[in-house]
Amino acid sequence: xxxIALFITGILFxxxxxxxxxxxxxxxxxxxxxxxxxxxxxxxxxQAEIIRSSGLVKNFGHLPSPSLTICFTDDVDAAQKSxxxxxxxxxxxxxxxxxxxxxxxxxxxxxxxxxxxxxxxxLQEKLKQKNLGPAVPDTYIPNLYKVSNSxxxxxxxxxxxxxFLKENWVVYAAPDYLLxxxxxxxxPLYSREWNIKNVGTPIQGNGTVDADMxxxxxxxxxxxxxxxxxxxIDSGVDTLHEDLMQNLLPGHDAVSHSTDGYPTPDYxxxxxxxxxxxxxxxxxxxxIGCTGVAPLCKIIPVRSFYYVIISGNLLPxxxxxxxxxxxxxxxxSAKADILSNSWGLPPDLVSYLPGGxxxxxxxIQQAYISGRNGKGVAMFFSSxxxxxxxxxxxxxxxxxxxxxxxxNMCDSRKSPTDCSGENWxxxxxPGLDFSAPGVKITTTDMLGSNGFSTGDYYxxxxxxxxACPNAAAVGALLLSxxxxxxxxxxxxxxxxxxxxxxxxxxDSVFTNGTWCPEMGYGRVNAYKALQYASxxxxxxxxxxxENWNIFPNPAHDDLNIQYSGEKNTILTIYDMTGKAVVVSExxxxxxxxxxxxxxxxxxxxxxxxxxxxxxxxxxx
Length: 620
Description:
By secondary structure, the chain is of the alpha+beta class. The protein folds into four domains: 25-105, Alpha-Beta Plaits (2-Layer Sandwich), CATH 3.30.70; 106-179, THUMP domain-like (Alpha-Beta Plaits, 2-Layer Sandwich), CATH 3.30.70.1510; 213-535, 3-Layer(aba) Sandwich (Rossmann fold), CATH 3.40.50.200; 547-618, Immunoglobulin-like, CATH 2.60.40.3080. The chain has helices at residues 44-53, 76-84, 120-129, 157-164, 215-218, 272-281, 320-333, 347-352, 358-370, 464-481, 487-496, 526-535, and strands at 29-38, 59-64, 67-72, 89-97, 103-114, 135-137, 144-148, 170-179, 229-234, 252-253, 298-303, 306-310, 313-319, 338-341, 378-382, 401-407, 434-437, 441-444, 457-461, 508-510, 513-515, 548-556, 558-563, 569-574, 580-586, 589-594, 601-607, 614-618. Strand 20 and strand 21 form a beta hairpin. Mean pLDDT is 89; it is low at 1-19.
């Protein structure tokens, strides 16, 4: 893990659970829906006939990837028992809910993470004994294997994971989950782009003059560098858009491996990724459309979710393995420098999922440790759009993530009662890094009538979905002038140069300066960030080697510290009040620290004599 200078934001809530329980998930099973996976040779028409003839299903809908059917019923138990007996059906499973209309389906595949690759033979042997498998190694995460479950008879995927967790050579076991990520987005056009230069005109929403990221001033220093690549992990990007084509690199489809990053143009919301891409790097001064914040940087389109209407509701669908692949491919195969992720899940739902969504956490950790030749990939995530003050959604709250809230054109946090007139608000509170424009953003849309608008551009792109690529593009500008910056340094420079806007009391003092729950360190200022970066001395400039690395993170029970220094040193962990809670002497090699008495929360670890610190998340 890189040296990090981050804030301690307060108590980490129970929603950020890490060792999610395998014992009490039954009380969170959704009572109104189940999942069917038919054998591959069963035609869709026959599937529908089987479902209707059961007399137990009120409504149903099919997903193309993964291929499955979601059924809505008044009696989940009866429907499950009925469908299990049918030879045409391979797998029957259930959904877990947080009770707030958020759901995750338990799929027929699961993950097993081994303590060491040498245990692979033991894993394969156990799978053979259980008529499971075989285990397929993950492409990007070391010692992680994906396993196929057999037909759901007397054991479901969660029970199999619990069984594998009993082995001392297993680090974790977790189901693959079907997910509904939160993806809210409720040049001639340059005059509309208040995020770049706000002049307070009616076409910009009658906002506050200069309530922008000072991008126009930042362009006097750089408009980007074609060597810097930003991966848009989203619904896909319209690769034929004339305002994007010049800056597009080959993409990837982590959903079905069929589109190379192009979206499925079925619904207006499929334009979500194209909107995000335009905010980052729409071509500047080409006489058409709009301009991106980093118009000379390159875009990598990565399709990680898609939209489907089921039971009258249009929702995005994806899986844990899809998001993990999208992140892994971006940093490893495409060599991305920045990841822009305008998606996430409610923390309560994540906490109810046995085993959590650990493969995605691992993918983020791997990008943070190994990306950019060890400097780490700066990963920006939207904080969420539910107007809650309990902190960002998953995975924005992870230590390796950079969480971004939305501001309005009046330079305050986007809330339901702000000057924009729109009834939504960004999530804020503990774990928030900073904020960026996220209301009525002008950007590219899918061509023609395929996206949000009937034209090729959209003037009302909203949400922390818009704030995230705005901030990510500033990160790309930083790397354009200082490519040697680490992921942590990108975060820290942006945080330390934010404007303290909105009239809030920035009365918490953390590692990167003063902080408030509503805005984090403030609203991003691209010009100040670039000015600071131009004189900033990076650890990579002076070849400073880190002496210690902490893992796992998030952690519980024990913390491992790999120390490479020749002389022993003292490591201290501080809580959010600055109180030292654990003090330990480190010797060269692997050290283990007992943190079993530490409460859930965000902590800071510091070595004696070193002003830099590393952020630690402890959760159970």
